[in-house]
């Protein structure tokens, strides 16, 4: 149990630098959700149940734009496809866990929880208490996301537009992505997705995001298969 506790807090500590960018991101989501017409309860419950920042942002924006339900569902599905890749990447380290542990960790598996966890697992390998690291990282992120969302909902439009909070999101993702660009497939996938995202920025209903995500997945998969 001592190893589990130490590993849990190691996950919390590894997650902490990313929380600096997550907190303003959650505040922006809370304000944006209200602006899109969602109730305070629905806005907070989305953070608690969906717990996927990108999907929540896209949903709020599409609801505000009165996008068709099918477009919203398709966009969310494609945006969250990356979680399947995260799961496949972590599976070798967590495959022996009981189902109840897998359910909890799959709920907590996000971009920010995955990034420090996979780095830790690749460094230390499989250990009896390894899953506690992901639990610590995920729990720290979940708590921060709930508090920041609630604060954004509470403040609402009182958040000054001059505050550059939206810049925290790209900085957070850059901090997660760059250390993991260690081979040709990942670098090509990142570049391909980035280029398509820029070229398709003007498409309606955030369809450019779908194209960028698909491009990154396809490019990475093709190059990974040729290794």
Structural commentary:
- Helix content is 77%, strand content 0%.
- It is an all-alpha fold.
- The termini are far apart.
- It is built from eleven helices and no strands.
- The chain folds into two domains: 163 residues, no CATH class; 47 residues.
- Helix 7 runs parallel beside helix 9.
- It is globular.
Beta-strand content: under 5%
- Tell me the number of helical segments per DSSP (H or I, 4 or more residues long): 11
Using the CA coordinates, give the radius of gyration.
18 Å
Terminus-to-terminus distance: 41 Å
Q: Which regions contain 5 or more consecutive residues with pLDDT less than 50?
A: none
Helix content: over 70%
Rounded mean pLDDT score: 85
Overall domain count: 2
Biggest sheet statistics: none
Instruction: State the total count of DSSP E strands.
Output: 0
Shape: globular
How would you spell out the order of helices and strands? HHHHHHHHHHH
Q: Structural class of the secondary elements?
A: mainly alpha
Layout: helices, strands, pairs:
Elements: H1 2-35, H2 40-49, H3 53-64, H4 69-79, H5 82-94, H6 99-108, H7 111-124, H8 131-155, H9 168-177, H10 184-199, H11 207-225
Structural features:
single chain, 227 residues, mainly alpha, 2 domains, 11 helices, 77% helix, globular
Overview in brief:
The chain is mostly helical and 227 residues long. It has eleven helices and no strands. The chain folds into two domains: 2-164, no CATH class; 181-227.
């Amino acid at each position: 149990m001592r190893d589990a506790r130490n590993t849990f807090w190691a996950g919390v500590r590894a997650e902490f630098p990313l929380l600096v960018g997550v907190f303003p991101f959650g505040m922006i989501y809370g304000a944006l959700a209200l602006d899109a017409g969602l109730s305070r309860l629905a806005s907070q419950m989305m953070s608690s149940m969906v717990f996927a920042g990108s999907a929540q942002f896209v949903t709020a924006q599409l609801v505000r734009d009165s996008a068709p339900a099918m477009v919203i569902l398709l966009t969310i599905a494609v945006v969250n496809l990356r979680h399947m890749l995260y799961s496949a990447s972590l599976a070798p380290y967590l495959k022996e866990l009981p189902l109840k542990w897998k359910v909890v960790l799959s709920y907590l598996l996000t971009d920010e929880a995955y990034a420090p966890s996979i780095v830790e697992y690749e460094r230390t390998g499989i250990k009896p208490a390894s899953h506690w690291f992901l639990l610590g990282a995920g729990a720290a992120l979940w708590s921060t996301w709930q508090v920041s969302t609630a604060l954004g909902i509470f403040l609402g439009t009182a958040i000054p537009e001059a505050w550059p909070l939206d810049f925290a999101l790209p900085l957070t993702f850059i901090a997660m992505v760059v250390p993991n660009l260690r081979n040709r497939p990942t670098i090509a996938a990142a570049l391909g997705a980035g280029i398509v995202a820029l070229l398709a920025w003007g498409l309606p209903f955030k369809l450019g995001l779908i194209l960028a995500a698909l491009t990154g997945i396809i490019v990475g998969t093709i190059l990974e298969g040729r290794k």
